[in-house]
Design brief:
The protein is of the alpha/beta class. The protein is built from 13 helices and 25 strands.
Length: about 450
């Protein structure tokens, strides 16, 4: 039986980060992946979807080229060429990733893994013994009972990436980041889009100002937005080229018709078939339970990433994987502070946040103050003809410490890293405001919001 210090099950961002860092700590490591290393993020999530969204952003820019004194005619989207470029970019990154993993002497094993015991794994009839096992199996799109995806009319995000043409109309059920990103993309490439969210606002887990702001902007681009709306799956009908949904809203029923329906109601951790019954690993509501060191109920088994729930983001899985490798190597670790992890929806424009929402801060009893600064007052935003949006700081009225930062606007996903660093350093609004920002730049939106919060702005 082959022996390793650490075996990571799942070759996505969390799994390969764990395995690579384990070798950096002097451990031997193997990485088991049933499809391709890179996982959902590289092949079915972060990378291909952001490539689509960047294409849509460029398409929008070209369409308004006259604003910049440029004449462009006969503008169209070649969806086949877009799909080819997507495969090319993903393929390049996949090849590079395999090279990096192998450079660190991590053995890549392809196949389905099954736990035989807390220290034994079987894959393709091959038995491995490990001092530590890390579950990094990721997640899959959550089903909506009674409205099962068929890959034709009712879709998951995976199906959307496989489509070779743009539907004439799309109904998106669920207005988290996945639902909004696909809604934004399809609006830009010419589809009629209806967004259906069961809760009272879009992006219901984010600050209310962000949900309301992106709803206004998507509606202005032509989206129909239905919030506090419940789909009745049992009343769904499919005929000709149309899916007909029955939606309950404000005590009344209404009908939504679309060529395709995207189910974007979240993701479930992948735990089936892992052999967890041969261990003391506990699963609750689809997520593996772990402690602050990402150790499960079985001391030799850790779990990270989407399979443990929480913030299901690739960069979160990577951070957790790094820490799990440290713990497996016998090091004392500090648990990841999820209130300093940036969150981004790559819509047009971006929605980005880090830290507490205003509502969360008030619920915790903080002495809360807030301050906004508009992109309309930023020179670079006007140069780009992207004046919509704002940065909102949530901070402690007494200490000035930054509790959360929420941004809606052009390239907000790039700007939020500064706020994440501020949270990491426990910075105050004054410290963020005194940080010198280049002029002209979009980053000044962040600086001006902080200066207003600290009362040190010379302009306002």
């Amino acid at each position: 039986m082959e022996a390793f210090d650490l075996v990571a099950i799942g070759g996505g961002t969390g799994g390969y980060t764990t395995a690579i860092h384990a070798t950096q700590l002097g451990l031997t490591a193997a990485l088991i992946e049933r499809e391709k290393v890179g996982g959902v993020c590289l092949h079915k999530g972060c990378i291909p979807t952001k490539l689509l969204l960047e294409t849509a952003q460029n398409l929008s820019l070209i369409r308004k080229s006259r604003t910049f004194g440029i004449t462009a005619e006969n503008i169209s989207l070649d969806y086949g060429a877009l799909a080819s470029r997507r495969e090319q970019v993903v393929g390049t990154l996949h090849k590079s990733l395999r090279s990096v993993i192998q450079k660190h002497k991590v053995e890549i094993i392809e196949g389905d893994a099954r736990l035989l015991s807390p220290t034994e794994v079987e894959v393709n009839g091959r038995r491995l013994k490990a001092k530590s096992i890390v579950l990094a199996t990721g997640s899959q799109p959550k089903a909506l009972p009674g409205l099962e995806p068929d890959g034709d009319r009712v879709l998951t995000s995976d199906h959307c990436l496989e489509m070779t043409e743009v539907p004439s109309s799309l109904a998106v059920i669920g207005a988290g980041s996945v639902g909004l990103e696909f809604a934004s993309f399809y609006l830009d490439v010419g589809a009629e889009v209806t967004l259906i969210e069961a809760l009272p606002r879009l992006l219901p887990l984010e600050d209310a100002a962000l949900g309301k702001g992106i709803e206004k902007l998507l509606a202005a681009r032509g989206a129909t937005v239905l919030t506090a709306a419940a789909v009745r799956p049992e009343a769904t009908r499919t005929f000709d080229n149309v899916v007909e949904l029955t939606v309950e809203r404000e005590g009344k029923e209404q009908t939504v018709r679309a060529e395709k329906v995207l189910i974007a109601t979240g993701r479930d951790g992948l735990t089936e078939g892992l052999g967890l019954e041969n261990t003391n690993v506990k699963v609750e509501r689809g997520s593996v339970l772990v402690d602050g060191s990402y150790r499960t109920g079985e001391p030799s088994i850790f779990a990270i990433g989407d399979v443990i729930g929480g913030l299901q983001l690739a960069h979160v899985a990577a951070a957790e994987g790094y820490l799990a490798a440290e713990a497996a190597a016998g090091k004392d670790i500090e648990p990841l502070d999820y209130n300093r992890v940036p969150r981004v929806a790559y819509t047009r424009p971006h929605v980005a946040a880090v830290g507490l929402t205003e509502e969360q801060a008030r619920e915790r009893g903080e002495s809360v103050k807030t301050q906004r600064f508009s992109f309309r007052n930023n020179a670079m935003a006007l140069i780009h003809d992207e004046p919509e949006g704002f940065v909102k700081l949530v901070y402690d009225a007494d200490s000035g410490d930054v509790l959360g930062v929420h941004a809606l606007g052009y390239q907000a996903g790039e700007l939020i890293a500064e706020a994440a660093l501020a949270r990491f350093l426990n910075a105050s609004a004054w410290e963020m405001g005194m940080n010198v920002h280049p002029h002209p730049s979009l980053s000044e939106v962040m600086g001006e919001a902080a200066q207003l919060s600290a009362g040190i702005s010379i302009y306002w």
